[in-house]
Each structure stands twice: as structure tokens, then as C-alpha cells.
Amino acid sequence: MVPRASFARAARRTLRFQCSHTPNNRRTLASAKSAGYSYETGEVNGIKFASRDIPGPTTQLALVARAGTRFQLFPGFAEGLEKFAFKSTHKRSSLRITREAELLGAELFAYHSRENLVIGAKFLREDLPYFTELLGEVISKTRFTRHELHEEVIRVIKLNQKSILANTDQMALNSAHSVAFHRGLGTALHPTSSVPITQYLHEQELATFSQAAYAKPNFAIVANGASHDELERWVGEFYSDSPATPPRDFPAIETKPSKYYGGEERIAHDGGNNMIIAFPGSGAYTGGHYKPEIAVLSSLLGGQSYIKWSPGFSLLARACKAQTQAHVSTRNLSYSDAGLLTISMEGKASHIREASQAVVEILKAISGGDIEKDDIQKAIAKAKFRTLEAGQNIGTGLELTGAGLVQSGKPSNLDGIAEAIEGVTEDAVKKAANSLLEGKATVSTVGDLFVLPFAEEIGLHV
């Protein structure tokens, strides 16, 4: 057995060697300015595209369309388009698409958010031509048959509706958006069980809506792990059938600016307890509504620890340490022209009640300047990390980049966002907290309403 003292001497020698050979500028490794974040953008035949040529044998390709629930003309249209992705086209059956993707070892995916519909694939790098063609076929040649709509699409939508009935977190989040924005961004991410989707969802109208959603100005193509020149070649070849403008005889996709209202909604539920306190947040950087101080305030409030064996530095994590049966988290939900800063609480009703009171007390403390400078610096570092991590994440980066191209013709500038966050001052955070308290809050409560508080009881204006 090697003596313990030998280990200690070896460790000291190693540490001295590392210290003496560490360059003074080692912190530059954490710089936001990295070629790995950058997308090369372009346009061919009126179609915007972007690529990030990450070294490796695989590629992820996505088509991002402005067809989320905010822009749908009737309830269920965004989800209907999502569910029809990779169904039968005029060229291939859904079975053939499935079998060919399996033979190539690929993965196909489709999802929608409040603003975007994302259709994509993950595959081996050499198969880029096939999947670029497939996505173009999905948006221009899907058949929208009646039997697939009723036997598969609507059936799955109704199953989702039932699952939402038991998901109090999703109910509270949908409620918060509805109270905050009413229509547009306030539309539920998935149709609730009370929505008569069969009254609105018909194959002819859905097919026409797809022509508007997939018109060239409304979508962009983004690739990770693909050569820019190669992507440009295949996009130019396979997307010639995409309409240049939406159909004239169909209502245009509305882009009316979002308006924040605020208010309160309470929903009784015996399956769990959720409470969301929300305020006007920061919009996306590409939309001109970005507020870096909101990103810092979100990290400062926090609630959830990201450090093992530690409650974390955030103010809510420390204030709610005694409420062990309440999970608290803060995040800013960014959209093209608006944002929603949400503080979510989930767990035991009595603990949520106490945690909600702590939220208001902490906001008042921040507004009054009763906060340590060290906490501000930690929050700035955390906000910067979250932003850069989201941009580095392939899945998140695809949607962010595609949405930026559609909205403003350029992807998110992560270097610019990081610099804006670094420039946030303590005074800016105080003013942000004060403006939230002076304005109207959004409070959505789901669960045991006998215990869970009203907004007025915790000192919020609605």
C-alpha cells in the first residue's frame, strides 16, 4: 500500500506545477466570443437559412415557421400542422417516410411553441440532401387527408387534452399567459378539453393555413453540422415549390403587437397545487424588446439551486429554505415582442402560501436597495451563463436562430447579449424590481383555493 504522505507530496507537486504553468489570461477561455456560437446566414430564392458547421459525423436540420399558437387562425391549427408533419405526401406515404428514415438511422421530430412550429431531423452528415428534400416535401406536398385527420391527428390531440387536465403546472402556465396577454401569446399552448376543436379543425382549412404558414417569408431553415455551401445548394434545389406569398383568399397571419394586461385567475384542482406570479418580462434580443436587467433579476430571484449540496445563492432559495415542500423557480419567457417573468411555486399549499409572501418581500427588498453587491455579481454571471448555454445547445439554438431570421432577418447575437448582461448595474436591477411592483401583476393559482392566497393578500396589484 502506498503511504498517505506520498499522495500528499505528489498532490502538492502537481498543484505547484499547474500554478506555475497557468497563463495569466486563462479566463479568456470563458469568453462569449467563440466561433462555435456563430451561424453563417444566407438567402436563396427568397428562403432564409443559417448553418453552423460543427465538426462531427452527424447533422441536425430544422425548419422553423412562424406558425405557433400565437399565429394560428383557429384553435388547434398549430397542433394540427405539427401532427401532420411526416404524414403522407403527394410523393411518399407516411409508411415510406418512416421506413426510409429508419434505414438511414435518423430521428424525426416536430413540436410547436407559442410562436414557432419546428419540424426537423437528426441524421448522418452525408444524408443532408435526402432530409433537406424531405422537409421541403413536408411543407409543400403534405396531403392533409380526412382519414388521417380524424383517425390519427384529432385522436392524439384529444389524448393530449386529457393529459393536460391532470397537469396543474401546465394549467397554471396557460392561465398566466391568458391573463397576461389575453389573445395571441395568451392562447393555450395546447387546446384544452373545453375547446371544441372538431368545430374548427377541417382538412381543407388546415391545408390552406399551411400555405400561409409555409410561405417563404414565414419560415427559415437552420442546420447544425452542415457546410454552408452545401446547405445553400440543396435549399435552392428542393424549396422551389414553396409559395412566395400567402394565399390571397385566406386571412393573413396576424402579427399584431402583444399587449400586457395582468390580472388574476384561480382554478380549483385536487391533483396538485401550483401558483405563478408573473410580470412583464424581456422580449427576444432580435425583436428589439430585450431587457438585460430582467435576465439578471430572474437569476437573482432564482429559487432553484444548480450547485449540488447547496441551496444556491439566489434570494428565493435562501428565503424559502424552511418551505421544504414547495419548489420555487424563476425564469423569463422571451417572445418576439414581449416577455413574461414568471415565479413558479409547486407543492404543498401551505408552503406555497408562505413562499408567495417571501416573493413579494424580496422584490420590495431589491427595490429598496437592500441587497448585497456580491449577489448582483453572481446573478450577472448566472444570467450570462444561461444565455450562452442556450445558444450553445443545438436544439434551443435551432429555434432561436430560425425565429430570429424570420422576425428580423438575423440570428441572435450572443456576444451582444452577453455584453448587455455584463453591463447591467445594481441601480438598473433596483429600478426593474420597482417597476414590477408598481405595475399590474399576473397571478394564476391552481389547486387548494381554500389555502392558496389571493394576490391582494400578499400585497400585489392586479
Q: Could you estimate the helical fraction of the residues in percent?
A: 40-55%
The class by helix and strand makeup works out as alpha+beta
Instruction: Report the radius of gyration as a whole number of Å.
Output: 25 Å
SS field, number of helical segments: 16
Alpha carbon gap, first and last residue? 70 Å
Provide a descriptive summary of the structure in words.
Helix 4 runs parallel beside helix 9 (228-238), helix 10 (292-301) packs across helix 13 (373-392) and helix 13 runs antiparallel to helix 15 (414-422). The chain contains 16 helices and 11 strands. The protein has helices spanning 4-20, 77-84, 94-103, 128-141, 146-165, 168-181, 197-200, 203-213, 228-238, 292-301, 315-319, 349-367, 373-392, 394-408, 414-422, 426-438; strands at 40-44, 47-52, 58-65, 107-112, 117-124, 219-224, 263-268, 274-280, 326-334, 339-347, 442-447. The chain is globular. It starts with a helix and ends in a 15-residue tail after the last strand. The strands form 2 sheets. The protein has a 6-stranded mixed sheet with strand order 1-2-6-3-5-4, sandwiched between helices. A 5-stranded mixed sheet has the order 7-11-8-10-9, with helices on both faces. It is 43% helix and 16% strand. Residues 1-8 and 14-32 have low confidence and may be disordered. The protein is α+β, with helices and mostly antiparallel strands and 462 residues long. The longest helix has 20 residues, at 146-165.
Helices and strands in order:
Elements (H helix, E strand, L loop, with lengths): L3 H17 L19 E5 L2 E6 L5 E8 L11 H8 L9 H10 L3 E6 L4 E8 L3 H14 L4 H20 L2 H14 L15 H4 L2 H11 L5 E6 L3 H11 L24 E6 L5 E7 L11 H10 L13 H5 L6 E9 L4 E9 L1 H19 L5 H20 L1 H15 L5 H9 L3 H13 L3 E6 L15
Helix pairs in contact: 2-5, 4-9, 10-13, 10-16, 12-16, 13-15
